[in-house]
Amino acid sequence: MSILPPPATGFDLDVPILIVGAGACGLVAALTANNAGADVLVVEADAAPSGSTALSAGLIPAAGTRFQREAGIDDNAALFAKDIQKKAKGENPQELVDLLAGQSGTVIEWLADRFDLPFSVVTDFDYPGHSRRRMHGLPTRAGRELIDRLRTACEAQGIDIICNRRATALFVEGDTIHGVRLEGPNGTEDVGCGALILACNGYGGNRDMVREFMPEIENALWFGHDYNQGDAVAWGDALGAETLHLGAYQGHGNVAHPQGILITWAVITEGGVQVNLSGERFWDESQGYSEAARAVLAQPEGIAWTIFDSRIAGIARQFQDFKDAEAIGAIRSADTLAELAKVTGLPHDALTRSIAEIPTGEPDAFGRSFLGEPLQAPYCAVKVTGALFHTQGGLRVNHEARVCHKDGGVLNNLFAAGGAAVGVSGSGDSGYLSGNGLLAATVLGHIAGSAAAADMKKEHGHA
Known about the structure:
Layout: E1 2-4, E2 13-20, H1 24-35, E3 40-43, E4 60-61, H2 66-70, H3 77-87, H4 94-115, E5 120-121, E6 135-137, H5 143-156, E7 160-162, E8 166-173, E9 176-184, E10 187-198, H6 207-213, E11 221-222, H7 231-239, E12 243-244, E13 249-256, H8 266-269, E14 273-275, H9 289-297, E15 303-309, H10 310-316, H11 320-327, E16 331-334, H12 337-344, H13 348-356, E17 379-391, E18 394-395, E19 402-404, E20 410-416, H14 436-459
Parallel strand pairs: 1-8, 2-3, 2-10, 3-7, 10-20, 11-17
Antiparallel strand pairs: 4-6, 5-6, 8-9, 9-10, 12-18, 13-17, 14-15, 15-17, 16-17, 19-20
């Protein structure tokens, strides 16, 4: 990840705004800048837009939206911000928390109204740490649908997205970015730009960086995008940018093994539990799915079984991933615990005891309270492991998503958003509040696109 002086021979192409990365963050930034009248080019290392977004459930938390009001949910940005900070034990920059929470509803409604994204709120179960139901998703509750709809919106607006182009160097003079070198199937291309938005996510795919900053998760299944190699952080370091919370990440302890399919945490929040290969429960599952990755990986073979019932399975089927897991036989079912023990290979006595000892209305030995219906036949189970989804540390940005310099001030025309920027998950994994990743991707992407477009207007005398 080189930093080079501007090429003496000039650039092969010049664009006002260049966006590196075509996940949700980059595409929202592109739509925003284009909507403000700026010309945009998006480059993507992969063969098609996807990013970590496509591997997620595609749910975006937002407060005070009309979708919530229509569902009878009373919510506001201050409450959302409080929930974010509570989960992260107050470790986040308050101004960033307030910024993301405050603009979350605006961005969701703008995407819905301007580009016909049919959002609705998940209303039949709660996500850990959220005091209100505020997860907004598309009909399939799948990140692939979110990416596909954003890409379709970009195409309808005439926004160019060029794939199979990996950014390998920045052309810099002083504190100003002049362009980017791209590696493609036909060699290198040097593209000049008036503003650069880094939407290339974090560094979860870089095993050396994971080992350095997050050694406790280095052996986890990598469930993010392989191009998340830490390019933004490397460039930022070279430019003297400030980084924050590089040890923060989102894990997930409920990925079907060996199928590699994300199983919604609804199977836990509705009353399910996790047991290890000895049939024993081993932690308070209500803490959250990010913490679950370490908890599961600490068990023998790094494996657990998630146990729930047919009622909970009915709720989980709103997620396409869950239906996919059922279709290929990852979800086992049985009419009795004895049968469930047989189909899972778990010890019958221990499994029966683990389910029988679940209390109702009072905390169990791990401190978890079960307030809903108890598990009952028919039972379901899925074999799972812990995974690393994406990192949450990154470049520190200001209220316009401009990259902050270590010495104060900002880099003139460099923006970072989504996983390239520091998120609001504190310093580790336990600070991750459900949806934080897509919250930062969409809201910071929107902010960066708007600010970059405003710069282009000023530059051309249209302010």
